[in-house]
Amino acid sequence: MCGLIGVISKKENPDFESKYLDRINYALDRMEYRGPDNKGLWRGEGICLGHRRLSIIDLSADGNQPFSYMDGQYIIVFNGEIYNYKELKEDLIKLGYSFRTDTDTEVIVTAYFHHGSDFCNKLRGMFALVIYDRKANKVVFTRDRLGKKPLFIFEDENVIIFSSEIKFFHTFDISLEINPGSILNFLSLQYIPGPDTIYQKIRQLKPAELFIYDRTALTNSSSSYWNMFEHVGKSTSLPEIDEIDELLEKSIKYRLVANVDIGLLLSGGIDSSLLATYMRQLAGNKVKAFNVGFSDKALDESGYAKKVAESLDLDLITLNVEDIDEDNFIESIYHADQPLGDSAIVPTYLIAKSIKQHVKVVLSGEGADELFHGYDHYNYEKYYYRLGRLPFESSAYLLDLLSVSGITKLEKVKNKLKSINSFKEDTGVSRWTSILSPDLARKYIFNPHQKEIGSYETQFHNFLSQFRMNAGKLESSLMLDLVTWLPDDLLVKTDRMMMACSVEARTPFLDHELVEKVLMASGYFSNQLFQNKNYLRTLLKRKLPASVSSIISGRRKQGFETPKVKWLNTNLIELSSILFSEENLSANPYLNNENVSKLWQDFKKKKPGVNNRLVWNIFCFLEWYRQHENKFGFKQ
Q1: Pairing mode, if any, of strands 361-363 and 504-506?
Q2: Which of the ends of the chain has fewer CB neighbours closer than 10 A, N or C?
Q3: Count of Cβ atoms closer than 10 Å to residue 300 Cβ
Q4: Distance separating alpha carbons of residues 227 and 473, to the nearest angstrom
Q5: How many alpha carbons fall within 13 Å on the CB side of residue 110?
Q6: Half-sphere exposure of 271 (CA within 13 A, CB side)
Q7: How far apart are CA 8 and CA 138, in angstroms?
Q8: What is the pLDDT of residues 118-129, one digit of tens each?
Q9: pTM (global) more than 0.85
Q10: What is the pLDDT of residues 530-556, one digit of tens each?
């Protein structure tokens, strides 16, 4: 796990080094938290590659980057881990290659040398990497299949700049104009869907994208080496429990490959408890597990985590996050990089600080709910389709059925049904996780041309269309989170907050073979095993002692809820008062001062029907914008 930054000139520039070298060095110094173990810089004619290293595999200096291969004909900078690098290395040795290190980095660049652009298909892991092929005079950029590791690119007629984090572009003298459409999407979703970013001229490399810049022809090309949609609906049978078990065990074995200790994020829910059983079986030593505790019993899961830890003899470390302060929040927004309204970033950041004192790597349960339908909103969507996608006027009947079926949070359902008719296009299951529709969100932005600002609706509808080529409408809707919410919110939260504290998070449920197995079985999503994570519940009953499994496997999905309303009124009240002040709102050119101010006043008066998520979301944007205006503290 590391940090990347670099510059490629498109034109002859005799001042290249004097213009960029000091800036990249400065950025690398500021990026130390992403890789405190080594700082590396390589420069050639019109190109400079920088790297920060967090040592996980081959802790020696042999693993330092930028890494040179074939007498400097190939230079690589790489962020992530390749879990099957030993197997790939053995295959390449059989083909006549020799190795001078025990790093996965050398295996990657050797695979590129042998397989060319097809090398990505050989890699099993999480990664964002850049290879400078000096022989062919081209630069290769790529990213892992599910978008676990980030890579941002700025490109104009003179230069290409890339970085692991978008804030580091403030180091350079380039235009960083905010994208109003991204603000609209953020207010609606609480995150910005890629490949767009908060800045108009910066994009994210897409998951599984292979981007190549030819320095001779001065052209670039983009392709995908893995296509999620191609796997949908290919299976003619329902996966057996044992198949899922074998794939999970295989995935976790791969993710235990490291030369440092590995811990576990243990909430006490089904996903993390199941991971704990595999780790206890496979790790070979006592596992350290980390948990977040709240004094509010409705939010606290630490009691469940304690039961699991005791039954498996895990070393449990619980962090109470009631005492967050302004500094914690401000630092979380800084490290989130782009505007992110997921309030769980704060406790995730705090627990990452604690983890850093114990281990460098943790396993995390992201992806389980998306694959095995653990969220409440999947149930909402199923009833929504079964009842013929009724308009709001018929919601009373729908709510009655939901109540009989034991689905709670009916007020949330009721509010969502009110906004469904304001969506211009079908946005699938995201209709339930969104804060409000883009049309309703327009009320809170200021732009003289706001009606011309596009939203994510067309993009999400296009994703649904691709899923529907091999799946039904409901099944397609249930898969949408895998290409939207997961890579652009949940994985961002975990990756950025952990990397802020020099900790690597690994996600076994997102091994691409397991993902492919589930996608292929989309025609069987109506089967009971795909309801409410019953695959995982069944496995948990097999692996945990009966006295504990009966408690944990029967739990409803709780989610990583936080007392954000309480925070705004207590721990963060001074900061929130400043950010929502008339003076601060008037100085913000992107928000509708009057409507945001009214929302804040209604929130303070505790008026019924106030959208608390929207209040928190705007609060996060206001703090992010304050840091943006200060260029995140970067000098130029």
Answers
A1: parallel
A2: C
A3: 19
A4: 19
A5: 22
A6: 26
A7: 10
A8: 999 999 999 999
A9: yes
A10: 999 999 999 999 999 988 888 888 777
